[in-house]
Amino acid sequence: MKIDLHCHSSFSDGIFTPQQLLKMAERERLTIFSITDHDSVKGTAIANSESVNYSFSYITGIEISARYKQEKIEILGYNFNADNSAFKQGLVNLQNARRDRIHKILVKLQEIGIDIIFDDVIKEVGDASSPGRPHFARVLKTKGYVSSVKEAFNEYLAEGRPAYVPRLTIEPKEAIKRINKANGIAVLPHPLFVEKHDLRRMEELLDLLISWGMKGIEVFYNYENTFSDFPAKKIQEVTKFLLDYCKQNDLLITGGSDFHGDKGTLGEVFMPKEYILQIQSFFNL
Fold it and tell me: 65: Cβ–Cβ under 8 A, 6 or more apart, which residues?
């Protein structure tokens, strides 16, 4: 059994359309699948409608941009009503801020001699509701300024680099509230990106998120195939800690690849069968 509850379509910063991702999920023989675009439900709504033609179970998903005390703490939402008008309206400001950010990043790149114009980025963005830095990274690669998306982030786009621009976010408490009001459940993605140094501090943060209504943690994540350089020993240590924490606090255990299309495949993150069965039971799949 394989699942993937974290990937991005062309409606945010992924390469492939929802329809293409559905076909990939079928080809990879996934049992459960979800598209979790940044601050947009367009892709997941399409996938939810068309998933009836496939053998796997589909769950609506989203990844909401959030920060707490200057720390990026994004929140995944699952199994919510993608047609909820209040929920969709709440995403508009985040989507508009992402588009405004394009101009600010362009200015910074041009100031350091990178010859990229607005049309280059818009061509890459296409129909995306939530454009992001990966679009710039792909343009930088296409134009020959870098050899890979990872290099683009390391040299120009990551926090602390010359073309980094923070984006408008909401607080995790608000993101969780919006997901819950849309009858979904809130899950913390890639916890190591939130707190990689101190497990005690991670536990304190998780306690706070639970108090705000969070119901799950993405324990199994594709750290090895992202821009991080976490050693295997650290990933194993945190995975064990999170499994114990979830069991002690009756939290849903999830997993995902964070697939954008640049590399890797859907369902490549191993997740033990017992936790997949728990997800099936939790969502009545």
Answer: 38, 39, 74, 94, 167, 168, 169, 170
